[in-house]
Amino acid sequence: MMSKSIDELLEIAKNVAVEAGIEVLDIYDKGTFETYEKEDESPVTSADYKANEIITEALAKLTPNIPVMSEETTIPPLDERQAWTRYWLIDPIDGTQEFVARSGDFTINIALIEDHKPVIGVIYWPCGESLYFASEGHGAYKRAQVETKAISVRKFGVPSEDVVMIAISRRQSREHVFERLSDKRKYQTLPTGSCSLKACFIAEGKADVFMRLGVTGEWDTGASQCIINEAGGKIMAATFDELTYNKREEVTNPDFIVLGDQRVDWHSIIRYK
Fold it and tell me: Can you point out the beta strands (E) in 98-240?
């Protein structure tokens, strides 16, 4: 069997994400879901499990030679995963709390990781009818309804002076974020739901920076990182170190930041501990 090209794999990921998103949106609109609590006390719903089922089964059928790692399935031990040169990294619903709270700010995330870095990123926002996607070296795009357009981070008029737009969670303390920001800049805030949706808003120039403080998994950043990179930004650990994939037994992320215009001296704006 001939291996599929990156373009073919991107199309598969886009189609599967939308298919799962349509089913999730139907469940969301009808309110026909159950909510459970994980061991870490975070919520998960029957919609998460349904999306996971749709995505993992489709990818297993369409790309049987590529392993799948998902938030909602058992994670294989590192000694098994180390043999993977590429794999799908899935977050069936990013923003489960937003799904339960009915804010509409939840997404379906699919990434392809190759040699420890994301080379495909697909994020579908069902309530916004928007599909964000990218592949390494080919730019970032947004498809809304029937229009597809290239997207990029907002370019500051004067990088050292422009007001910085911060994407911030509706459920995160603003003080917790602002105490880590320089008081020499002016800020505005854009309250938004899931981590990946904040990243997408930065990728298309609606916001400039997002800081995520707290435990997340590699599936929370994989798709976003590819899209942000291709849009001209970066996702990094909050210490400005590189994020890595499939290198540790634990698949949790450190605190991380999503950064827009790379001409900006973000080191002078973000103070981390």
Answer: 107-114, 117-125, 130-135, 140-144, 147-151, 164-169, 187-192, 209-212, 216-217, 234-237
Q: Residue 80: give its domain's CATH number.
A: 3.30.540.10
Contact assessment for residue 156 and residue 265, using Cβ atoms and an 8 Å cutoff: no
3-state secondary structure (DSSP) of residue 185: coil
Same domain, 89 and 13: yes
Specify the number of domains making up the chain.
2
* 3-state secondary structure at position 122: strand
Spatial distance between the Cα atoms of 272 and 178, rounded to a whole number of angstroms: 11
Amino acid, res. 258: V
The helix or strand, by DSSP H or E, that contains position 68, with its residue range, turns out to be strand 68-70
Residue 194 backbone dihedrals phi, psi, to 5 degrees: -65, 155
Cα–Cα distances in Å, from 69 out to 102, 104, 115? Answer: 27, 25, 15
Query: pTM score, two decimals?
Result: 0.95
Say which residues have a Cβ less than 8 Å from residue 114's Cβ, sequence separation at least 6: 85, 86
Q: Give pLDDT tens digits for 91-147.
A: 999 999 999 999 999 999 999 999 999 999 999 999 999 999 999 999 999 999 889
